[in-house]
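Its record is quoted verbatim for completeness.
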Amino acid sequence: MVYKGACYCKAVKYEIDIASPDEARTSLCHCKNCKRFFGTAFGLTTKIPVKAFAYTSDSAKPTIHEADNGSGSLLHREFCSKCGSGILEYGAAAANDFRYVMTGTLQDPGALPPKGEFFCAYREKWMPEVPGVFHKQHLKE
């Protein structure tokens, strides 16, 4: 199954090629870094195998930002330099195995619904739990 996506201005385009939606895991993250990067109360990413992700041949090259994620680990993010849309991210530990695609950049974000929530201890008090998914209070439980 091929899932297509792009940034807001459509300069940066990509495809995700997976055999089944089970190979993807969409999740909400309530950590401080995701809140700040996404500009919302949570981040929403879809974890996929690194080999499943590719920028299309007509895509602009994304801009890369790397910085300490607050825990001493390097976080890599790619985004469009024209419109600023985040495309994907991954930490140093996942670099060879996974990409975390910003779910809202998919043509059909609803095609890969959430399977879980991370850092629920930091969920905004006004936001309810997403029903029917796993809930981790902290990353390592």
